[in-house]
Write a structure and sequence with these properties.
With about 725 residues, the protein is mostly beta strands. Helices cover about 5% and strands about 45% of the residues. It contains 2 helices and 61 strands.
C-alpha cells in the first residue's frame, strides 16, 4: 500500500512582527469570539484578543487581515507577562520587559512604539489605551505611571504625594483623568479611596473627595456629566451582589446607587462612556437600554434570533455596538439604537457555542454557565454543531472543580465535583439524563467510571473505598483497597456487561448480570504486585473478553476476562526521563534532576521504568501499550509477540515548570494515534498503529495553547483545540 505523507504547518513567524496569514486550508470552528470580539467599522475589520495573539479579519468576508503575537499569563510572582487592548481605531500590545506597540486596526502596521533600553528598566505590569486612542498609559512595578501622547511622542509622569499606587481612569471629556488611591492597607472587605483630578501636561494632580464604602470597590471610569462610575461588591455576602454607584469625584459624594443581583450581573452591559445600561435576557429578541445616570428607560433594541448575551459594548464610527452570537452560531453586529438593524458579519463563518469540555468523535461536549448559575452541558454533532443532548445541573458554590463522564448511547452525563467544607474536602456526583429537570442520582462520592449504557457507575468514597452503583444509587458491590491512596482506575466493557476495578493490590472483574460474580486477577503466578493509577491504564477488548492492564514498573498484563487467567505479559525495556522536575525538594533536588537529565542523554541505566497505558487495535487482535506517552508498541493477543513499534521521537524537553508534556492519543478504535507535545515542542505526527506508518506531521507554535485533541476512527481527521479554536486537521489520504 502506498503511504501518502502530509505536512501541515500551523506556525507563525517571530513574536515581534505583525503577520499577514493566509486563510487556513482546513475547517476551523473559532471559539466563543462574541464574548471578546469588537469591530472597527472604519477599518473594516473584526478584532479579538485570542489566547496567544490578536487577530483581525475582514468584517464582511471573514478573510484573514493580520495577526500579532501577544504574551499572556503570569510568572512565579503572579505578575503579568504581557497583554493587549483592542481600541476603537488602534490595538495596543505590551510585554513585561517594556516593549509596547500601538497598531492600526485596519492593516496592523505600527503607528507608535516603545522599546526597552539596553540595560532594561522597571518592570511593566499594565498598559492601557485612552478611549480616543491618542494616549497610552504605562504602569510599572515601582508604582510609577507614564502617559505618552501618541501624536507628539511626549511623555508625562505622574505620582501622588503618598507614593502609593493608584487606579488611572479617563473622565468623560477625554482630557481629564481621575486617580484613585486606597487609604486602607491589605485586602479589607471595605474601601476608602482618595480621588485626584489631573489634566496631562498641566499642573500637578488636584485633590478631590474621599469616597468610603463598607463594600469592596473599584473605579470603572468617567461619565459624560463629569461624575464617576464605581462598582461595589459585597465580598462576604452569600448573595454576593454588585452595586453600581455614581460618585462626584470632587466631593466623594454618592449621587445614585443601582443594585445588581449577582444572577443578573452578566446580563448587564454599559457603553464605553458609561452613559447607558443595556439589559439582556438569554434568548430574548430584544434588549432594554436605560439612561444610567437618570435610571430611565430609553428604548428597546432588536437582537438576532436565539442571541446569546455578549460580553461588552464598544464604540465605533460614532455609535455604540454589541456583537451577538445567534442560535445557529453565526455572528451579528447590533447597533445600540432604537430601530437599528442587526448585520451579519464574517460571511458564513460559524463559531463554537461555548467552552469545549471534551472532544468525543463524532461528538463535541461543551459547557457554560446559565443566567441562574447552573452549569449547562451540551452534546453537539462535530460536523454540523447541531445539538444532540443537553443537561443542566445546579452545583453548590462550595464546589469549585467539576469534571464529566459521558454515555452518548443513553444520553446520560455523570458530573463530578470537588469542594471544601472547613478543613475537609467534599465530593459529589450527579447523574443526569438529557433534558431532565431533576437528576437521576446524587451521592457524596467521587465518580470514577460510567458504563456505556449509562446504567452503572463506579464511585469512590472519602476513605478510598470503591462502590459499584446502579442507576438508582443501589450498591451492587464494594471494593476496599489496602491503602487509601490505592484507589485506581475502573473500566466497563463496551457492552456494559462487566466492570474491572483496581483497588490496590487487587484487580477485580465483576459481571453485571447473574449474581455479580467476581474474579480476582492479581496475585496469580506471573503477576507482580501491581499499581495502576491512570484512568487509561485499564481497557477491555471490543468484545469484552480480554482485559489489558498497564501498570507501573514497565509491565502490562493481558487477562482472559471470562476466567481471569493471565494470558501474556508485555515488558517495556525502553527508559525515559522523569516527567516532573521535583520542585518541592528545593534547589538540590532540582539540581539532581538536571544531572539525571544530562546523564540520561548518554545512557538509560539511571532512568526510571515507565508507566504504561493501554488500548486495543485491529478489532481487538492487537494489544497496545504506551510507555510514558513516548513510545507505542502493538502486541499479538494470540501469542504475545511484538508486532509493531511506533516511535514518534517526541522531545524530552521540559517546560518552564520542569515538566515533560508529551502525549500519545489513540483513536476510539485504536487503529490510529496522534503523538504531540502540549507545549508545541518538536513535531506532532499521526500514525497507523496497525501498519506502523507515519501518515502526517503537524507543527504548532510553541506559544500556542494546544488543549484537547482527538483522532477520528478512519484516521482522516485530527481534531485539535488550538488557542480556543477547533481545527479539523487533515489526516490520512
Amino acid at each position: 500500500m502506498a503511504v501518502v505523507f502530509a505536512v501541515v504547518s500551523l506556525a507563525l513567524a517571530g513574536a515581534a512582527e505583525v503577520q499577514n496569514p493566509a486563510d487556513p486550508d482546513h475547517l476551523v470552528y473559532p471559539g466563543v469570539r462574541s464574548r471578546r470580539i469588537r469591530a472597527d467599522l472604519e477599518g473594516g475589520v473584526a478584532l479579538w484578543a485570542g489566547i496567544s495573539q490578536i487577530t483581525a479579519e475582514d468584517l464582511d468576508t471573514g478573510a484573514a487581515r493580520w495577526t500579532v503575537p501577544v504574551r499572556r499569563g503570569v510568572d512565579d510572582q503572579k505578575l503579568p507577562l504581557g497583554g493587549s487592548e483592542v481600541g476603537r481605531r488602534r490595538t495596543l500590545v505590551w510585554s513585561a520587559e517594556g516593549e509596547v506597540s500601538l497598531r492600526d486596526n485596519g492593516n496592523g502596521k505600527e503607528v507608535w512604539g516603545r522599546r526597552p533600553g539596553f540595560f532594561g528598566g522597571a518592570r511593566l505590569v499594565h498598559a492601557a489605551l485612552s478611549p480616543d486612542g491618542e494616549w497610552v498609559t504605562l504602569h510599572y512595578l515601582d508604582k510609577t505611571v507614564e502617559l505618552w501622547r501618541v501624536a507628539s511622542g511626549k511623555r508625562f509622569r505622574v505620582t501622588l504625594p503618598s507614593g502609593k499606587s493608584f487606579w488611572f481612569r479617563w473622565m468623560g471629556d477625554g482630557k481629564t483623568a481621575v486617580l484613585a488611591e486606597s487609604l486602607l492597607e491589605g485586602n479589607p472587605p471595605n474601601s476608602k479611596l482618595r480621588l485626584w483630578l489631573w489634566e496631562p501636561g498641566g499642573a500637578d494632580p488636584v485633590q478631590g473627595g474621599v469616597y468610603e464604602t463598607e463594600r469592596s470597590a473599584w473605579v470603572e471610569g468617567g461619565l459624560p456629566d463629569g461624575n464617576l462610575l464605581v462598582t461595589e461588591f459585597e465580598r462576604d455576602s452569600p448573595e454576593q451582589d454588585f452595586y453600581q454607584v455614581i460618585v462626584n469625584p470632587r466631593t466623594g459624594e454618592r449621587v445614585r446607587e443601582i443594585a445588581v443581583p449577582r444572577e443578573t450581573s452578566r446580563q448587564l452591559l454599559t457603553t464605553e462612556d458609561n452613559a447607558r445600561l443595556v439589559a439582556f435576557q438569554e434568548g430574548s429578541p430584544t434588549a432594554r437600554v436605560t439612561d444610567l445616570p437618570a435610571g430611565t428607560l430609553l428604548f428597546e433594541m432588536s437582537l438576532p434570533g436565539g442571541a446569546r448575551i455578549p460580553s461588552h459594548c464598544f464604540h465605533s464610527a460614532g455609535k455604540d455596538w454589541v456583537v451577538c452570537q445567534d442560535g445557529r452560531n453565526a455572528l451579528w453586529l447590533v447597533p445600540v439604537e432604537e430601530g437599528g438593524a442587526p448585520r451579519r458579519i464574517l460571511r458564513d463563518k460559524r463559531f463554537l457555542p461555548s467552552h469545549v469540555a471534551g472532544i468525543r468523535p463524532p461528538h463535541l461536549l461543551c459547557s457554560e454557565r446559565s443566567d441562574d448559575g447552573r452549569r449547562v452541558h451540551t452534546l453537539l454533532d462535530m460536523d454540523s454543531l447541531e445539538e444532540r443532548a443537553r443537561w443542566q445541573c445546579g452545583v453548590s458554590a462550595q464546589f469549585w472543580g467539576t469534571w464529566t463522564l459521558l454515555s452518548a448511547e443513553s444520553g446520560r452525563l455523570l458530573l463530578g465535583a470537588v469542594g471544601r467544607e472547613g478543613e475537609q474536602n467534599r465530593n459529589a456526583l450527579v447523574l443526569m439524563a438529557s433534558g431532565a429537570e431533576t437528576p437521576l442520582l446524587e451521592k457524596p462520592y467521587s465518580p470514577v467510571a460510567l458504563s456505556p449504557d449509562g446504567k452503572w457507575l463506579v464511585a469512590s468514597g472519602d476513605d478510598g473505598s470503591l462502590f459499584l452503583l446502579d442507576e438508582t444509587g443501589g450498591t451492587a458491590a464494594s471494593y476496599v483497597p489496602q491503602e487509601r491512596q490505592g484507589t485506581g482506575p475502573a473500566v466497563f466493557s463496551p457492552d456494559s456487561r462487566r466492570v474491572a476495578v483496581f483497588h490496590m493490590p487487587h484487580l477485580t472483574v465483576t459481571d453485571l448480570a447473574g449474581g455479580f460474580a467476581a474474579r480476582e486477577l492479581a496475585g496469580q503466578p506471573g503477576v507482580e504486585r501491581m499499581y495502576l493509577y491512570k484512568e487509561d491504564a485499564l481497557c477491555f477488548s471490543p468484545d469484552g473478553r480480554l482485559l489489558l492492564a498497564g501498570a507501573t514498573r514497565g509491565r502490562a498484563y493481558l487477562f482472559d476476562a471470562d476466567s481471569g487467567r493471565l494470558l501474556h505479559t508485555f515488558a517495556e525495556e525502553r527508559r525515559f526521563l522523569h516527567r516532573n522536575m521535583q520542585h518541592q525538594g528545593g534547589f538540590l533536588t532540582s539540581l539532581g534532576v538536571v544531572a539525571m537529565d544530562l546523564l540520561g542523554s548518554v545512557t538509560d541505566r539511571r532512568k526510571p521504568t515507565p508507566d504504561l497505558t493501554c488500548g486495543f487495535a485491529n478489532n481487538g487482535t492487537l494489544a497496545l501499550t504506551i510507555a510514558d506517552d513516548q513510545l507505542l508498541r502493538a502486541w499479538s493477543v494470540h501469542d504475545g509477540r511484538l508486532v509493531r513499534t511506533v516511535d514518534p521521537k517526541l522531545p524530552e524537553e521540559r517546560d518552564t515548570n520542569g515538566r515533560i508534556n508529551n502525549q500519545i492519543v489513540l483513536s476510539p478504535n485504536g487503529n490510529y494515534c496522534l503523538a504531540r507535545n502540549w507545549n508545541g515542542f518538536g513535531t506532532a505526527s499521526l500514525w497507523d498503529t496497525v501498519g506502523g506508518q507515519r501518515l502526517a506531521e503537524y507543527r504548532f507554535r510553541e506559544d500556542s495553547r494546544l488543549s484537547a485533541v482527538a483522532v477520528a476512527d478512519d484516521g482522516k481527521t485530527v481534531y485539535a483545540m488550538i488557542d480556543g479554536d477547533l481545527h479539523f486537521l487533515p489526516g490520512r489520504k
